[in-house]
Amino acid sequence: MYSKILSLRFPKEVVEQPIAVNLVRKFDLTFNILKATISPKKEGLMVIELSGHHKNFKRGIRYLRSLGIKVESIAQDVKRNEPKCLQCGSCTAVCPTGALYVKRPEMKVVFDPSKCSACELCVSACVVHAMQVKFNKELLS
To answer: Can you give the pTM of this predicted structure?
Structure first.
């Protein structure tokens, strides 16, 4: 089983198509929508965790690109500015995936980017803005 968190940027011409369900039907992939901002007749953004056999995953990515959807990996997009972090733990309270947690007994906030879904909840919870989300421009091959 292959799984990756992706950013999908939809052109306005395809936002009303059943794209996610086609990934399931045509390519036997599963998905979990982590964030979505899609408006009819406008461009959209969806962050999904896409899973399935590697061969089907690649076919699904080709399908998305054939529709004009920009597909980007976002696993490395969330960064923590270590010097800014006060170790207060506010971010750990809102992190739904456990990517941010308090290491005990040191009481140090730890960030595990491999668990991050880029939901951005930590960004708004951090009073000193130590958490930052930037979409990476590296396209999947």
So the answer is: 0.57
Please name the residue that has the structure tokens 């980007």. Answer: 72
Q: What's the pLDDT score for residue 40?
A: 72
Residue type, 119: C
Return d(Cα 24, Cα 3) in angstroms, integer.
Answer: 14
Question: Distance between alpha carbon 104 and the CA centroid of its chain, in Å?
Answer: 28
Number of folded domains that form the chain: 2
Same domain? 65 vs 88 = no
- The model's pLDDT over 89-115, given as tens digits with 9 standing for 90+, comes to 999 999 988 999 999 999 999 998 878
**Judging by DSSP bridges, how do beta strands 108-111 and 30-38 pair with one another?**
unpaired
Looking up tokens 């939809």 gives 10
- CATH of residue 90's domain is 3.30.70.20
The region, left, alpha or beta by phi > 0 then psi within -120 to 50, assigned to residue 98 is: left
